[in-house]
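We recall that each integer encodes one residue's backbone shape. We quote one record:
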Amino acid sequence: MTYEEFRGVHTALITPFTATGEVDEVALARLVEYQIGSGISGLVPCGTTGESPTLTHPEHDRVIELVIEYAAGRVPVIAGTGSNATSEAIRLSLHAEQAGADAVLLVNPYYNKPTQKGLYLHFKAIAEAISLPCILYNIKGRTGVNLETETLTALARDCHNIVAVKEASGDLNQMKDVIAHRRHGFRVLSGDDNMVLDLIEAGGDGVISVASNLFPRLMSTMVAQALAGNRDGSRALGAQLDEFFHSCFLETNPIPIKTAMAMCGWCNEEFRLPMCSLEKEEHRLRLQAAVDKLKSVAPEAFRA
């Protein structure tokens, strides 16, 4: 896999469930086809948006295997294999490699709140256990710890297969600092849809996206225009999508995006506890309005 393939829009896939709570393999296959047919750059199963914390290990392995099978080499599959336990992350990453994934996404260890030394040793141990490219996922709001730029650059220097970062710190200055200090070829991807244009204009490379679950064509076009230097075109699309971006975080991700997908007929509105349906009716109404607003520009998203 070349570094170039880590540019653009990679969708952080939802995991659809049946009405009885199992992984909905038919809906998952349909989603993968929709993504690929809409020009997405890559697929990321079993991330936060895929409700990975509530998947059993056999389910986690199965979802990754299925997405690899359904994608059939047409786009890269970046398997979410991070964990708060290094040994568990290594096991998940080894399975992804054996299953045929193109790369792994490794979230900061959560709840433990390791030191920067601990983060360095954690990610280094995983990178050394596999040969796949590794994308680190920095999201302090979910994990309670920030991967500092000095630690990240040390990992990229010392581990040849640590090749990118998904930056979801929400701090554009930190993202710019990463860009300024990265080695040649190292990719910086946004973890926030509403910040991707700022990131690209600062020298970044794309996004691992929540919104592209429902609107992959619009997201792909927006990011492609930004990467090509068409600021006016990308910003115009960004303005159209902005309300939906914010609606996706009215409540905890992935509750709003999965609800929006269900509104449009892509999946059931089924979650794994402690994730549950939207708490506030006003949020449902705002989400529905944001979705409906895009019907004229993305009719392909509306199956129902």
